[in-house]
Design a protein that fits this description.
This protein is mainly alpha-helical. It has a domain of 232 residues. It has 13 helices and 2 strands. Strands 1-2 form a two-stranded antiparallel sheet. Helix 4 packs antiparallel against helix 5. The protein is globular, with a radius of gyration of 22 Å. It starts with a strand and ends in a 6-residue tail after the last strand.
Amino acid sequence: MLGPVYLVPRQQAPLWLRAATFVGGIALGLLIAFGILIAYGVTAGQIVNEFIVFVFLDLNGLAQVVTASTPLVLVGLAAAVALKLKFWNIGVEGQMWLGCIAATGVAIFDIGPDFLRLPLMFIAAAAAGACWIGIPAFLKLRFRVNEIITSLLLTYVAYQLVQHLLFGPWHDPGSAFPNSRHYDEAGERLARLGWGSSHTGIWIALGTGILLWFVMTRSRIGFYMDAIGANVEAARAAGVPVVLTTALAALMSGGLAGVAGASLAAGQEYRMTLFIAGGYTFSGIVIAFIGRFRPIPVIVTAFVVGGVYTAGDTLKVFYQLPAAMTTLIEAVILFTFVVVEFFSRYHVTFGTRERA
């Protein structure tokens, strides 16, 4: 008989071991995903060609990865900011929709001078996303309403609003599809970088990540966020402004999601469509968890997921894989990372319990 099973926390791992855990968890997840693809009928040579050669060794593939990663960085940061404080923002897509609506409204109604139009679009998108998450944040902090439910339900409200606008007053009369009119080339679109479909939105995403890293690691707000994330009751007893910090983190999360919606509209679609924000909530949560709610690892993870998206799109077109395969690969990577992370933090003992 082995006796009772105990989980004993390990001591704080050194930086190199944490980095190795991060890389190893992603690598193990990709390895298992490759096994699933091989079982589905994709050959090893095809996997290497699509996931390695095309995605990371081909300039056109890299450009597609950069383009796909731009909104992923922003939604990953949006999820990380909220989840670090255990605020479950499940309505990232709804905030993206509101950001897209706000940016499109500025473009359609020519708000502000031409040279300020694009900055105003992004400011409006951030404000709209922040306001949308502000509703669940207020309900949670004031009345203890579960933010998972309210943020998720508000996503459906946002999508209905998008449908109303695109089938109604904002419908482009020159299109048979429910789209808004195209943004003007001068002043309403993110400029191309001259490298495939990549655009200047990547600088917005990376700059936002660096700024958020500074806030979370070098400011009093970041210290408060660490304290609340570790133990909210202890933080409150120590005098940390829990309500104010949580509200600020939630608004930051919604604002980042709104900017992600605007970057998709102004950098890729050049208009508002019914399909801009679909599927980004799950991706944002996966990226945030694998990135351990820290901006720099979140950025790195977003580029890995962007590579999975790019390879997945190619596999769907040329090898007739279902669209759900990309989501399955994301889920496998998250699961393996969580397992590796768990056993890096705890070890299992049998019989008598060891001291931590």
